[in-house]
Amino acid sequence: MIVSTGADSTGWIQSVYAGASGIVQALGGQVVPPPKHGRMAWDSNYLVYAVREPFPSKHSNTNMVYGVITPDTPLHISSQMTGNGVIFSDGVESDYLSFNTGASATIRVADKKTTLIMK
């Protein structure tokens, strides 16, 4: 799962949008890009998430692959991975939290926001 802040909305989430768009178009569908091609303001009061590899199995489904997290609607997730499940930030996988069977996490909008300082 990829979760993007406004400050990061020109990064990894753009790759997710490009991949999804390419697949839809290859299958003959029409793509309507999100406003500003998914780029959010740096100080946006919401996050977007996309499931990186939605895989339907006998224990899971793929009906929740993209969404918006707001201060009023945090995202609660639970792990069913028997091993090697991790949560990490901004591509720094060495600084991770274990996320294996029975673990749960709540992803919410932080009180502190990124500040862009330009010289």
Write the layout of secondary structure elements.
Elements: E1 2-4, H1 12-26, E2 47-50, E3 66-69, E4 75-78, E5 86-89, E6 92-98, E7 104-107
Antiparallel strand pairs: 1-2, 2-3, 4-7, 5-6
Précis, in short:
By secondary structure, the protein is α+β, with helices and mostly antiparallel strands. The chain has one domain. The mean pLDDT is 88.
C-alpha Rg (nearest Å): 16 Å
- Give me the secondary-structure category: alpha+beta
Name the average pLDDT.
88
Oligomeric state: single chain
- Major β-sheet strand ordering: 1-2-3
**Can you tell me the residue ranges where pLDDT is under 50 for at least 5 consecutive residues?**
none
Helices and strands, in order, run as EHEEEEEE
Q: Helical region count?
A: 1
Structure, described:
The protein has 119 residues and is α+β, with helices and mostly antiparallel strands. It has one domain. The protein is 13% helix and 25% strand. It is built from 1 helix and 7 strands. A 3-stranded antiparallel sheet has the order 1-2-3, covered by helices on one side. A hairpin with a 2-residue loop joins β5 and β6. The longest helix has 15 residues. The N and C termini lie far apart (34 Å).
Keywords:
119 residues; alpha+beta; two-stranded antiparallel sheet; 7 strands; globular
